[in-house]
Every structure is written in structure tokens, then in C-alpha cells.
Amino acid sequence: MTTIATGAVEEPPAVTGPSPPNHPAGPVRRVAGGPLLLGLAWLVAFNLQSGLVALGPVLPALVADLSLSNTVAGALAAVPMLMMGLVAVAGGRLADRWGARRTLALGLALLAAGGGLRAAATGWLLLLGFSILFGVGIGIAQPALPRLTRTAFPGRLGLATGVYTSGLIAGQVLAAATTGPLLVPAFGWRGALALWGVVAATALAPWLLLARPASPAAAAVVPGAAGGGWSPWRDRRIWVISLLYVGQGLTYLLLATWLPAIYGDLGVDAAGAGARLALLAGSCLPAGLLLPTLSDRIGSRRLPLLASGLLTLAATLGLATAPVAPGWSWAWPLLAGVGTSGVFVLCLVQIAEAPPAGSTGAAAGMMMAVGYGGAVLGPVAAGALRDATGAFAFVLLLLPAVALAITLLALVAPETAPSKLVI
Asked: Do domains 34-219 and 232-412 have the same CATH topology?
């Protein structure tokens, strides 16, 4: 029977080779507060996305108030994601050395400070600086979440990953839905951004108070973590997971950016195009929760990953060949949301399981650096192709090629799940 830890314990030092794929790495100790810890991880994940998404609805008012150029406005939107990729490697290594709890607290503190202080900026330079700080906070915190799930929930890693992933999605949805209505004269863009900074700071307080390790031994820094000569950059399995992460990110970000325009070019009205985009986003939440939990129950990560790749392939082929077919035009965004979110969350599970003990943060940092670096090219390439050709036809042909690559990579992805799991 697999012993399930219920709180935060640290991993043992890194070893020189990969951990056995069907067993949790290192000794697992039972400590108190597992559900509370998972709830706090959900709060952290929620804040990693809410402040990021909140910028979009306030950007027009912000640009008008500060008399900014469109170039500066674009930079403000791009800089946090750029910093998330640039800082991810350092954030992952910090999680291995400090432990997930302290690293998450630091990342959330920087996120809250940078995100909230954007509301006080009086010019583009200060705004850019606070946006950089905000992105650094996200980049530090994100790689620590897979390490936290590996150390605290090794027996139910899929379930734990699904729960905190739902926080990421909920942050996106709630920020997108509520930030616009907050732009009333008495509140304005400054009040809207300040509010999300306060939400992040509020989430930091219980994290610092209640997510403390149960013993001095659990709080100790892990000596030699991420050492022993192992590097994620030389591990074929980590590269496969990272390329899967790139593929899903590129596909989802491209569709999230351009799907309304794609359907608009095909004659669909704005309301219909927007509804299909909402369906794409909304389908991510149930898939992100259910698929990793299913992978725990069946003792396989590869099978749900392959199914997610095939769903993404079916969706992108449908968009390329019959985008406005009656009925099916609604199925394609639904399948794309389920497929891409399935690949996303299963990559997070695998990156927590595949590395040697003590190196989870380093592996997650590499995956996120490679993933964000590749994914941001998707919307840019799609826009350039649209400008060059006058249509989205080539973009729609590119997507099935990416989905096919995801499916083929899923076939050779590492099988990291315990072969027998008692739930």
C-alpha cells in the first residue's frame, strides 16, 4: 500500500541517476495538514494567473490615462510572460535548495508587491519595472508547485496536481470576468490592479502562518539538492516532457489569441466567435481536474496523455478541414480545450515524478523556461502568417502538425506513475 503524506516534507538530497519510475522518491513521512496545504497551493496557483489576466481588461484605460504608445502597451503585456520563462530555471533551483514552502512564499510576495504597485505607477518606466517584478514572482513560484506535490502528496500526485491546476484556471476565468466591470469611475484601472495585488497579499498571510513544516527536520534546507551531476538539460525524458509542454502551450495560446479572428474571417458573428472562445477556456477546468486523477487510478500517465494528444489532433484537424460544419464548429474548441489542458496538467504531474529526488524544481524550471519560450512564438507566428497571406489557412494547417508531434511525443513519454496505487 502506498503511504500518502498529508503535509509538507522535504525531499532527500539529489542522487546521481533517475529515481525508479514506479515508486515515490525517498522516504515519505506523514505530517498534519494535507488538505489545508493543498488549499493553500490552490490559492498560490490562483494568484499566479489572476493578476496576469487582469491587465488585459484595464489596458485601454491605462494606455489612455498615461498616454502610452501601443508598443509600450504590448511590452507591458509581454514582459511578465517573458520573465516567467527567464526566471523559471533559477526559481526551480531555488525550490530545490530552499524547499517549496519558502520559495512559494517569496514568489507570492514579489508577485503581490509587483502586481499591486502597478496601480501606483505614474509613468511607463515605473509600470514596466513593477511588471518585471510581478513576472519574476510568478517565475520563482511556479516551479515550486510540482516540487510541493511530489514531497507532500506522492501517493496522490495526479489528484494534487489537478487541484492546484484548477486554481490556475480559476484565476484566469475570474480575473477575465470581473476586472472589466471594476472599471467604474470611482475604481478605475488603478483600483482594479490594486485589488488583485491585495488578493495576492491576502493569500500570502495564511501561507506563511499555516504552511509551516511540522518539525525542524522538515524545515531544513536540503543539502546538495539538484547536485550529484544530474542535469535536466541532459535527460532525454525531461526533454520529451518539455517539448510536450511547448506543444500544448503553443496550441492553446495561439487559439486563445486568434480563435475569434479565425471564426470572424469565416463569417461567424462576434457573439458566436466569443462563445466558442469561452467554450475553449471553460472546457479546460474539468479536464484539468479529472484526467490527472484518472491517471492516479489507472496507474498510468502515458495513456491519458496519449488520449489528450489525440483529442488535440482531432480538434485541430477539424478546424483545418471543416471549421464551420454545423454542430462540429462547437465541438472543435471543446475538444481543443480538453486535449490541451490534459497535456498541460499531465506534463506537470510527470515533471514532478521523473527527476531524481531533490531535483524536481530544477526539472520544472527547465520545462517552464523551454515551454514559455516556445509557446509565445505561436500567436506571433500566426499573426505574421495572417499578415503575409491575408488569411488563417496556413495557421490552421500548422496546428494539426503541432498536434501530431504532441501525439507522437506522448507515445515515448516516460511512464512515471506507480504501477499499483491504492486510492
From this structure: yes
Q: Where are the alpha helices (DSSP H) in 143-235?
A: 144-152, 157-178, 188-210, 216-219
Residue type, 69: S
Enclosing H/E stretch for 184: none
> Rounded distance, CA 311 to CA 332, Å?
9
Nearest to 111 by CA among 172, 50, 166: 50
Q: Using an 8 Å Cβ cutoff, are 151 and 364 in contact?
A: no
Extended beta strands in 225-321, E state: none
Spell 355-388 as b/e; 16+ CB within 10 A means b. bbbbbbbbbbbbbbbbbbbbbbebbeebbebbee
Lowest mean pLDDT among 11-20, 135-144, 284-293, 337-346: 11-20
Backbone φ and ψ for 355, nearest 5 degrees, come out as: -75, 165
| Residue 4 phi, psi dihedral angles, 5° rounding | -105, 120
**In the CATH scheme, what is the code of domain 232-412?**
1.20.1250.20
What lies within 8 Å, CB to CB, of 274 at 6+ separation is 260
The full set of domain ranges for the chain reads 34-219, 232-412
Question: Which residues, other chains included, contact 187 with Cβ-Cβ below 8 Å and sequence gap of 6+?
Answer: none
Evaluate if pTM is beyond 0.70.
yes
- pLDDT category at 212 given cuts 50, 70, 90 is low
Q: What's the average model confidence in pLDDT over 41-68?
A: 88
Could you write out the DSSP letters of every residue in 72-105? HHHHHHHHHHHHHHHHHHHHHHHHHHH-HHHHHH
| d(C-alpha 64, C-alpha 336), whole Å | 36
Give CA–CA dist 108/302, Å, rounded.
32
Query: What CATH topology corresponds to 34-219?
Result: Growth Hormone; Chain: A; (1.20.1250)
